Amino acid sequence: MQSTSSPGQPPPDVPGWSPGGSLWGGLGHLLRHSSPLSQQLSPEAAADTESFLRTQCKLLIIGAGGLGCELLKNAALSGFRDIHVIDLDTIDLTNLNRQFLFRTKDVGEPKATVAADFVNNRIPGANVTPYHANIMDFDKDFYRQFHLVIAGLDSIDARRWLNAMLYSLVERDDEGNPVQETIIPLIDGGTEGFQGQARIIIPSLSSCFECTLSLFPPAKNFPLCTIANTPRLPEHCIEYANAVLWDKMKPFGNSKLDTDKPEHTNWLFEQAKERADHFGIKGVTYRLTQGVAKNIIPAVASSNAIVAAACANEAVKMITSIANNMDNYMMYNGRYGVYTYTYRNEKRPDCPVCGAPALVKVTAKGESTLAEFLETIAGHPELRSRKPFLRTSTGKTLYAAAPAHLRKATEGNLDKKLEDLISSNMELTLSDKDLPFIRTVYVSFI
Amino acid sequence: MFRLKQQAKESRTRKETGVHATRAGQIRVQKDVSELDIPPSTEVSFPDPDDIMNFNISLSPEEGYYASGTFEFTVHVPDDYPHKPPKVKCTTLIYHPNIDLEGNVCLNILRQDWNPVLSLSSVLYGLQLLFLEPNPDDPLNKDAAELLKRDRYEFQRNVTIAVRGGYVAGTYFPSARRR
């Protein structure tokens, strides 16, 4: 986005913009007034912040679905202009009730593209760049260009991946402290029926997604014995077809179950129906089969709106400093009223992503043996690992002191030279029966 | 509070310390494996030492109905571990109330009661328990379960035949005798 105006002045290409006036005037107002909750900015600083938001700030929104549509709309109307959006999905007819950037004619089109076009046409000054792709298709250089990421994802896997990716972008200075400019905050929203959450993750400073992974209720699973012997619900019959019959009957050769393929889902449906008839259970439908096999949870538009509003609110606060951010997790439950509560998730010291301390640097001679290197590790003051299980970051097992079978399988490496096993400046992952944490060992050859 | 207005991000010598994104599950498995508490009756083996997400368990119960046999299991740990439980299959054909003839294992912690604070050691203990105390109230092999409830001496006889190698209720069980 080009802006030729001086900071704080209305960009000439944006009709209706004036400080204190219509479209984004409210933000200018907030920036120029003091309140008990934030310090008053000098006029220069206020203008500077506005200019940053309009001309420099790059925002990444992940997902252009239920939350994504809301997030895009909120962000663009709040004054973010350079917005990028990733979504791998295409528009389905059933999305239209709540994903308001899409119309009937858009069914089958990529969500990211249609959403971006809609916002660009509707909101003056918005410059949304769409990517019809998977978040995992992009590398560190892509993510590094953003100032802030807001995610409206629907899977735990994708969140874990994104969390670890943003964490991996954090660089450290010589004392091992995170370098501020390399920290990209993540605002993560999520909804499930009438419930939702919004949280702020500041990689390396706040608790990360992986820290609190165990707080998620486990995926709903029916006891195998029930679905095999005493089914009572239509879901039991579908789960039986899914968990037992597919592997047993291999209806499509060796191909894995793909619930996006109608013929696969249809096969599940027919098998489940047959089983339900046999046990006198009513209610197995194609729709329910889809729901159970894909684990579909009904989406509630108002939950999306509330959670997206909280996310956008935090994004604006973070970029402009008009108020402090929430710390750091908000839960919302709209099931029996409107209940929200905000509390701080703490960092978990043994978190596999952010809990490892700044990596431990070890130098070694390339021609020394792995056995000699293990002695170095055993004597290293920050490691003191005597029963090491050492793997490279590329997934090769170098040595495992336990269990016995793995030790025997890797003993042969002990006499090998380090330079034949790894290269210099490589990261190794070290765990040890007697060490509470995993360590990352950074080996340089001397 | 964290303030975001940053300067242009100049390139600097990269000293990235983070773990690679897809490896969070693997790192947890590495931790679990190094902390594995292997009971004396159990052996754990890795067909490919570099692939720690797939391994085998060989169980030779020291007491109980199955004391004379050795039973093999494969364990596959999914990438989204520990959010999802490991997948365990019994590769030895076995006459057992909680294991069917396809090798599916009915153990609560492998399905409905799985919880990310559990570990691979919990799975080993769970399998142990299954052999020490087969649970007829939660059957996968219904015939075996009913027999265990009705007449445990008859049940023991069937187990012994199956472990030694022979026909039980029309199914041939190859020998699973302890090596």
TrEMBL record, chain A:
GO biological processes: protein neddylation
GO cellular component, one term: nucleus
SMART domains: E2_bind
EC number: 6.2.1.64
UniProt keyword Mitochondrion present: no
Xref: Pfam families: E2_bind, ThiF
Keywords per UniProt: ATP-binding, Ligase, Nucleotide-binding, Ubl conjugation pathway
Active-site residues, record numbering mapped to chain: 225 (glycyl thioester intermediate)
Domain annotation E2 binding: ranges: 362-446
TM region positions: none
Catalysed conversion reaction: ATP + [NEDD8 protein] + [E1 NEDD8-activating enzyme]-L-cysteine = AMP + diphosphate + [E1 NEDD8-activating enzyme]-S-[NEDD8 protein]-yl-L-cysteine
Transport keyword on record: no
Known pathway: Protein modification; protein neddylation
GO terms for MF: ATP binding; NEDD8 activating enzyme activity
Job of this protein: Catalytic subunit of the dimeric E1 enzyme, which activates NEDD8.
Family: Belongs to the ubiquitin-activating E1 family. UBA3 subfamily.
Protein name: NEDD8-activating enzyme E1 catalytic subunit
Organism: Chondrus crispus
UniProtKB/TrEMBL annotation, chain B:
UniProt xrefs under PANTHER family: UBIQUITIN-CONJUGATING ENZYME E2
Region ranges (Disordered): 1-22
Pathway(s) this gene product operates in, as recorded in its UniProt entry: Protein modification; protein neddylation
An example Gene Ontology molecular-function term: NEDD8 transferase activity
Domain UBC core: 24-168
UniProtKB keywords: ATP-binding, Nucleotide-binding, Transferase, Ubl conjugation pathway
Membrane-crossing residue ranges in chain numbering: none
Similarity field: Belongs to the ubiquitin-conjugating enzyme family.
Keyword DNA repair: no
Compositional bias segments (type: Basic and acidic residues): 7-18
Keyword ATP-binding: yes
Designated name of the protein: Ubiquitin-conjugating enzyme E2M
